[in-house]
Design goal:
Bound molecules: zinc ion
CATH superfamily of the largest domain: Jelly Rolls
Order of helices and strands: HHHHEEEEEEEEEEEEH
Number of strands: 12
Radius of gyration: 20 Å
Structural class: alpha+beta
Number of helices: 5
Strand order of the largest sheet: 3-4-5-11-7-10
Strand content: 15-25%
Number of domains: 2
């Protein structure tokens, strides 16, 4: 069950096209998976439309009636536009991606198998910072680290814990330099996440600290 969602301000900025493209992508992908946020977004968009119309100088009753009718239409009609599903393949496993991420399945330049039962595939979004699919096998973990910037993560499949709490499929996770965490999973099916990071990770403990000078290379 999804417990973590983008906040109202993030959804509002998304609806107004004010987010960075990486942030917009991950919010769009979450919204593909989350009925609650999809409905919230519909309401925000309706409100924005209403505000835009209120700014019109000359009232047009026919137009207002048409708009009112549109706004009263049910938010979720149950009709899904069909699209060709692309699956992400890794080590004999297949994952269905949210619609907004589908087109990136082809843009992966292969998976890197990293220590800690981790697989990572970088996605070139043509933006600052970086975007990755990361898959943790059962028993896999990322060395304890903090962030110099902000890390947004969307759980695409499976579940994991980071010593702070547990995360489930669909959860939208925001982590900043205030958080030190150690993601790991004990789920049989492992865990696939998509993340956007604006600065390199900073490892804080054990042997992984030695990675810091290389974290730009290793995790970038
Ligand atoms: Zn949501």
């Amino acid at each position: 069950m999804i417990k973590l969602h983008p906040n109202s301000q993030q959804l509002s900025e998304f609806a107004q096209g004010q987010c960075d493209s990486g942030v917009a992508l991950i919010i769009a992908a979450h919204t593909d998976m989350c009925r609650q946020c999809k409905q919230k977004l519909t309401l925000i968009e309706a409100e924005l439309a209403r505000e835009a119309m209120a700014e019109k100088s000359s009232p047009d009753p026919a137009f207002d009636t048409m708009l009112a009718n549109i706004l009263q239409m049910p938010a979720a009609s149950g009709i899904e536009v069909s699209y060709k599903q692309k699956k992400l393949e890794l080590d004999g496993k297949e994952f269905v991606l949210p619609r907004s991420l589908q087109r990136y399945a082809d843009k992966i330049n292969g998976w890197s198998h990293l220590p800690g039962k981790l697989w990572q595939a970088r996605v070139d979004l043509g933006i600052d910072g970086r975007a990755d699919f990361t898959y943790m096998e059962k028993g896999g973990s990322v060395p304890e680290h903090t962030h110099r910037g902000t890390e947004l993560t969307l759980v695409l499949d499976g579940e994991f814990s980071d010593g702070i709490r547990n995360y489930d499929t669909g959860d939208f996770i925001e982590r900043s330099c205030d958080h030190v965490h150690t993601p790991h999973t004990e789920a049989d099916e492992g865990c696939l996440v998509f993340s956007i990071l604006d600065k390199p990770l900073h490892f804080t403990s054990g042997i992984a600290r030695l990675l810091n000078p290389f974290s730009q290379l290793f995790f970038k």
